[in-house]
Amino acid sequence: MDVDVFVAVHRGEWTRLDELSRRRAKLTGPEVDELVTLYRRTATHLSLVQSAAPDPVLVGHLSSLVARARSAVTAPRGTAWRDALLFLTTRFPAAVYRTRRWWITTAVVSILVATLIGAWVAANPSVQASIAAPDEIRELTRPGGDFETYYDSNPASSFAAQVMTNNAWVAAGSLALGVLLELPTLFILFQNAANIGVSGGLMAAAGRFDVFLGLITPHGLLELTAVFVAAGTGLRLGWTVIDPGPRTRGRALAEEGRIALGMALGLALVLVVSGVIEAFVTPSGLPTWGRIGIGVAAEAAFLTYVFVLGRRAAAAGETGDMASSDLADELPSVG
């Protein structure tokens, strides 16, 4: 090995590795990936020099550089609140933004299905009769009936907990079961759309569709968005099984699975907000326009969060996956 030529070829990489190692606390996501790549490469260079041309000065320099880079790559994690802040301001919104085509399509199709079912139910008394007995439908749709009193049937705090738990299960099921070739997620979506369509259709047939919208809209905008995001992510995960692209199927599933897990945690927080709105705002004495305004504001805030913070983070290279330094270390390879 010609040591001078070897140094000339790789000096730029070593200089860059030294720079990244020294400012490890301020690295972006792509720079962390670059740090790990250069660390592995330089560790291989050190191994080559030690075996082929053990120049003591070069070995000492590379040993020090590799040790510093190793420390940067495996440095203890920051405080939990910093991790949480990074997740909420970067990783989660970026992941939601990157999957936008999946969940926006899911939302459009689901709303269309719910609308068609609602119109079918509202226009066909025979369909209504097959759903429930006339007395039961009247009890559901009358002023002060079951549909209206559902939202204040329990103390707000216990109702909020019940709603959040139910919604979390729906979102988690839509997301996690997508890996089974998407079929369970599609079933959950259809069931959810059918429930909304049937309720809306029965209320519309009773001439009380405005009440239906007034009670559903405040919490439903954010709640359904969270369900659509979860379902879209589940469908994307299922498609990864079918078509992993240039990655191996195992690697693709591991990466997309980690992203999906992070999204499940973020969506749980979104559902907490929608659950609080459903428990405290929907049954409140506020005028309908006030309750709907709160729901629209919450939905607008979430979409702004995704399409501003998320787009910015995605443009910077964030995928929503774990940082390279959090993943299992691999043996250095020549590259």
Task: Describe the secondary structure blueprint for this structure.
Blueprint lengths: L2 H20 L6 H24 L3 H18 L6 H19 L1 H24 L1 H7 L2 H8 L4 H4 L6 H21 L6 H23 L3 H34 L6 H33 L6 H28 L20
Task: Please explain how this structure is put together.
The chain has 335 residues and is mainly α. The protein contains 13 helices and no strands. The longest helix has 34 residues. The protein is elongated. The two termini are 17 Å apart. The C terminus is likely disordered.
Output the number of helix runs: 13
Share of residues in strands: under 5%
**Count of beta strands:** 0
Give the overall form. Answer: elongated
* Content-based structural category: mainly alpha
Biggest sheet, open or closed, and with what strands and sense?
Answer: none
Radius of gyration: 27 Å
Summarize this structure briefly:
The chain has helices at 3-22, 29-52, 56-73, 80-98, 100-123, 125-131, 134-141, 146-149, 156-176, 183-205, 209-242, 249-281, 288-315. With 335 residues, the chain is an all-alpha fold.
What distinguishing features does this structure have?
13 helices; mainly alpha; 335 residues
